[in-house]
Write a structure and sequence with these properties.
This protein is mostly helical. The protein has 27 helices and 3 strands. A 3-stranded parallel β-sheet has the order 1-2-3, with helices on both faces. The termini are far apart.
Length: 571
């Protein structure tokens, strides 16, 4: 219910829709979703919420049942153990001794599992007929039933929803025997989803269980899976990827929830119509700037497995490029000025709306109004002093203004709240360099890679810091450690190759340049470096073809031409 930006998600839209239609009523919509959790964790959240007064709970879950904690394909804890083991383990972790044991047995640093995207699960294929799925469905049913009971303990009505996913424009991620791919090609989209061996989307059984449990428990049920599109097979018009919504998708899901909320809360008829999709976008501050930011994030997301392996990846990338151009053309001064004016007015009406302030700060920064952007982040940090990411955002905005001391204080506050905040350690190190505190900057980079060992940028910046102090070999050691964590890093392979080339260790230089070319065959610098390091080893017969290949890729490459001339060869 959050990605790609919860500020424009279904629950934010639901809140502004209800506020607009029933202005005399006070609404507060709280999103308790967390990345990658499933019903085992949601059940614990629900139990904690029993003590809070509430009127309506909306339960929308099911995409993470297989790969979330205790799922059949999880990397977090045991694989689909009996329900009593899950619950005992989760309860134990709430105690002091349980947290200590978890710390001891889970380890630290790279040994601990943290969310690293869908790539973490590529070898966890689960067939539709795998017996372990039966335990997944059974656990989901028990957990959902308990969640409904928790809602009633809080005297709240319950709305259970089926889970809608991208069926039409999301080819199966993996197919054990090509069944899923064949079904997708035959436009049997629901069956293809159910046969997908990487089960990142809620399947038909999950939704059937949700309907059954809601019926047995006399809870409200809304069928989002069928209700979001006329033909029951939604696609890219509603989803940015396999399960996360576009703004249009978020709007229509909120619209489904809104009708149910009105009935549940007994709000009755209203003379005010529901806000349109465009009205909601304006009220939440969605501008071309934000749409471009989301598209860029999604494009990066799609460059990784399993998305990059899908049959429609090139077409999807072309569509994103076209959308980026379209939204860039919509970023007129008039449009953005009006958006700023809207933000000012909405924040006057509700100064405590931190999500609106965050999006306003993003807009201001995009317009190079860094001081005004920083002021918004500072206000958010004051509103939410317990939120480390807000101190981090404030620090980053101070960084953009070269206010290093103020930025440093903000990053230190973020780390105080979240001691494993690797990005904050990295940014803190950059601030310390600017203030000539080189030794502590190194310590900050060290912390950054301790908590995120594959943080290539931090390794590189740490190495560059050492090089600036004349500690070349120490820097090389850091680059080599980085490569142990991320062997396919183009940047680190090139750095190591160039450093060994400078040391006249042409053999090692050639090895690293060769790796760089393997990672990115069309990278001109790597190809040139490989050719030069081979020629320096008197391996002209290997180096020259590489130079000629560079000229095929870039006919005007002056460096390749110069090397060939120096060898007395024609271009």
């Amino acid at each position: 219910m959050g990605d790609p930006d919860p500020a424009f998600g279904p629950l934010r839209i639901l809140e502004v829709m209800l506020e607009s239609r029933y202005p005399e009523t006070n609404f507060e919509v709280v999103n308790t979703a967390v990345t990658a959790i499933n019903s085992h964790v949601v059940r614990e959240i629900a139990a904690d919420l029993e003590k809070f007064e509430s009127d309506l709970w909306i339960v929308y879950m099911g995409n993470n049942e297989v790969y979330g904690p205790f799922g059949a394909g999880t990397v977090f804890g045991s694989v689909a153990p009996p329900l009593w083991i899950n619950r005992t383990g989760l309860f134990f972790k709430k105690t002091k001794i349980g947290q200590l044991a978890e710390s001891i047995f889970s380890g630290k640093g790279k040994d601990r599992k943290s969310w690293g995207g869908l790539e973490m699960f590529l070898d966890k294929l689960i067939s539709r007929d795998d017996p372990v799925l039966e335990r997944v469905y059974r656990n989901y049913a028990y957990n959902l039933s308990d969640i409904i009971s928790s809602a009633r303990e809080a005297n709240a009505d319950v709305l259970v929803s089926s889970v809608a996913v991208n069926l039409k424009d999301c080819p199966p991620f993996r197919s054990n025997d090509d069944t899923a791919k064949r079904l997708f090609g035959e436009k049997k989209f629901i069956e293809a989803r159910d046969e997908d061996a990487l089960r990142f989307r809620a399947d038909s059984r999950i939704n059937a269980v949700a309907r059954e449990v809601a019926g047995n428990q006399k809870a409200r049920f809304v069928d989002a899976e069928k209700g979001l599109s006329a033909d029951g097979v939604p696609g890219d018009e509603l989803f940015v990827d396999h399960v996360h919504f576009t703004f249009k998708g978020s709007y229509w899901l909120a619209r489904l929830f809104a009708d149910e909320a009105v009935a549940s809360l007994g709000l009755g008829e209203s003379k005010n119509p529901w806000l349109s999709e465009l009205d909601c976008a304006e009220r939440l501050g969605l501008t071309p700037v934000h749409r471009i930011q989301i598209l860029r994030e999604m494009r990066q997301w799609f460059s990784q497995s399993p998305f990059k392996d899908q049959a429609n990846n090139k077409e999807r990338d072309s569509n994103i490029k076209a959308d980026l151009v379209r939204f860039a053309n919509e970023q007129t001064v008039q449009v953005l000025d009006k958006a700023e004016s809207n933000y000012d007015q909405f924040l006057k009406d509700d100064p405590s709306d931190w999500q609106l302030r965050k999006e306003y700060a993003i807009l201001l920064a995009a317009r190079n109004k860094n001081k005004a952007s920083s002021l918004q982040y500072e206000k958010i940090a004051d509103l939410l002093p317990h939120r480390p990411e807000m101190w981090y955002r404030f620090g980053s905005s101070c960084q953009r203004q070269s206010d290093w001391a103020k930025a440093q204080k903000a990053f230190e506050k973020a780390i105080l709240i979240k001691p494993d905040f690797h990005q904050a350690y990295f940014s803190l190190g950059l601030c310390q360099i600017e203030q000539k505190a080189w030794s502590v900057a190194g310590e900050s980079f060290e912390k950054a890679v301790e908590f995120k060992p594959d943080y290539v940028t931090a390794w590189i910046r740490w190495g560059q810091l050492l090089e600036s102090q004349g500690k070349t070999q120490e820097a090389i050691n850091k680059y080599e450690l980085a490569l142990e964590e991320v062997p396919d890093s183009l940047a680190v392979n090139k750095l190591l190759a160039s450093r060994y080339l400078q040391k006249s260790d042409n053999k090692k230089a050639a090895n690293y340049f060769r790796e760089a070319v393997r990672v990115s065959p069309k990278d001109t610098e790597s190809n040139l470096g490989l050719a030069l390091s081979l020629i320096k080893q008197q391996k002209t017969n290997e180096g020259v073809p590489i130079l000629r290949n560079v000229l095929k890729m870039d006919p005007n490459n002056s460096t390749a031409k110069r090397y060939l001339r120096q060898l007395g060869l024609d271009n």
